[in-house]
Specification:
- The longest helix has 27 residues.
- The protein contains two helices and 19 strands.
- By secondary structure, the protein is mainly beta.
- Strands 2-5-6-7-8-9-10-11-12-13-14-15-16-17-18-19 form a 16-stranded antiparallel barrel.
- Keywords: Signal.
- InterPro entries: Porin_dom_sf.
- This is Porin.
Length: about 450
């Protein structure tokens, strides 16, 4: 990591100092001003039915404003999420060398965006057991808008069946916790190894207190932005479990960070396994939630020349496993996740030098509140270990960041963070990373959820 320009040191110090000053001012104001019942927008409406069984769906559990409510006909609730973000990836001009020895440009960014907006309509129809959700999702950074949703029937707490757009699994972050993470987007290793969202038939349930399962049959790893005619007849599968033995919960949506301030130690242990036959047609998918099949040097597997000069891979198998563990206690949060991914069964228009590629990685995230439910500080490291036998190396990152919560809720916040990254294997305008980057990324964001 090079020497940080003095201007950016001053900017960062001023930003962090402002967060601390705002947090201290807010604490003083709370001591002087009586609490007012004026935060209903950020609190669950009591008319919203308990949706805990939908964990693992792209849902907005516990949020929303009820627009229509009839005990015989059903319920319609409106929920929304919005994010404004500034990002600066440095150094501005740089190159990297891929595993085949080719020098490539790194396309860094510095911009301010109304980055993301999501509007959800959800509820139940004629019986509270029949659930639906319809979502409009737009990402200004990619100039794209997507409409998706799901339908489901909650038979009982042990078995719930859904169909629509969801994830087969692959990491803890895709299992319904968005956007309640430490930052507004995923860390590097998580983004590299996770599954994405696609047409899925899935079931979940709580088989014992605090013990949940998820099984899924899916079209592929990521379908958003792909037409049905582009899909093959291959189907993907996913399954996983998570166990919360001490408190039988891990915060709303299984959130990251302990804003809720657990007085009893909360624990969560889980795993997820996914398998999918992927094909080159998916390169046409530029949707921000698409987990493109990338190699450990950030090259797209299905791009011509990714494994051998002039050779194009047409199909490949993806199989991955993740194992995670986390704790929460009195504002302290600690979580780690390990990943392994194997790519094999390549079909190409020429000879490729490998039969399989096995990559490993992990992250560790920790956070605490120096000012309870006002100021949160966190640190992260994540690593991706590319398959050395296939010619790949390792990537790593270190992150420091802060969240300031101006209201008595975690659903309105300002986030600031610095990422020190080396050889990023991830590349997207949606997240924090660009392929091949070695350097520093600064970001400041404000977000709202109701």
């Amino acid at each position: 990591m090079g020497t940080m320009p003095s201007l950016w040191v001053r900017v960062w110090i001023v930003s962090m100092g402002s967060l601390l000053l705002l947090a201290g001012t807010a604490v003083a104001e709370e001591a002087e001003v009586p609490a007012e019942p004026g935060h209903k927008l950020f609190e669950p409406d009591p008319r919203l039915a308990d949706e805990k069984p939908t964990w693992g769906a792209i849902d907005t559990t516990g949020q929303g404003i009820v627009l229509f409510d009839d005990k015989d006909m059903g319920q319609v609730a409106l929920s929304a999420y919005a994010l404004v973000r500034y990002i600066d990836q440095r150094p501005a001009d740089q190159t990297f060398v891929d595993h085949l020895g080719n020098e490539r440009d790194v396309d860094t960014r510095r911009d301010i965006q109304f980055h993301r907006a999501m509007i959800h309509l959800k509820g139940w129809f004629y019986t509270p057991k029949f659930r639906y959700q319809i979502t409009v999702w737009t990402v200004m950074s990619t100039d794209q808008t997507t409409l998706y949703g799901f339908l489901g029937y909650q038979f009982n707490k042990w078995f719930n069946l859904y169909g629509g757009i969801n994830t087969p699994g692959g990491s803890r972050s895709v299992m319904g916790s968005h956007p309640l993470w430490l930052a507004n987007d995923r860390v590097m290793a998580d983004e590299f190894f996770r599954g994405s969202f696609t047409g899925t038939l899935w079931a979940n349930g709580e088989v014992l207190p605090g013990l949940w399962y998820h099984v899924a049959l899916s079209n592929n790893l990521s379908q958003l932005g792909i037409t049905a005619s582009q899909l093959t007849r291959d189907m993907g599968t996913g399954y996983g479990m998570w166990w919360m033995p001490t408190t039988h919960e891990f915060g709303p949506l299984g959130s990251y960070g302990d804003w809720e301030w657990h007085e009893t130690l909360a624990t969560r242990f889980g795993f997820s396994h996914i398998r999918s036959r992927e094909n080159r047609q998916e390169l046409e998918n530029n949707n921000p939630e698409n987990t493109q099949v990338r190699l450990a040097d950030s090259l797209l597997l299905f791009n011509t020349g990714s494994l051998a000069p002039g050779v194009t891979v047409e199909e490949a198998d993806w199989e991955s496993l993740s194992i995670d563990a986390g704790i929460k206690y009195k504002g302290i949060f600690l979580q780690a996740e390990y990943y392994r991914r194997q790519l094999d069964n390549f079909v190409a228009d020429g000879l490729v030098p490998v039969r399989k590629i096995v990559d490993d990685g992990f992250y560790v995230q920790g956070a605490f509140f120096p000012i309870k439910q006002k100021l949160e500080l966190y640190g992260v490291t994540s690593w991706v270990f590319g398959d050395e036998d296939a010619g790949f190396g390792e990537s790593r990152e270190y992150i420091i960041g802060a969240n300031y919560y101006p209201a008595r809720t975690r659903k309105l916040r300002v986030n600031a963070q610095i990422i020190d990254v080396k050889k990023s294997p991830v590349s997207s305008t949606f997240g924090f990373y660009v392929g091949g980057q070695t350097g520093t990324t600064y970001s400041v964001a404000a977000s709202l959820l109701f």
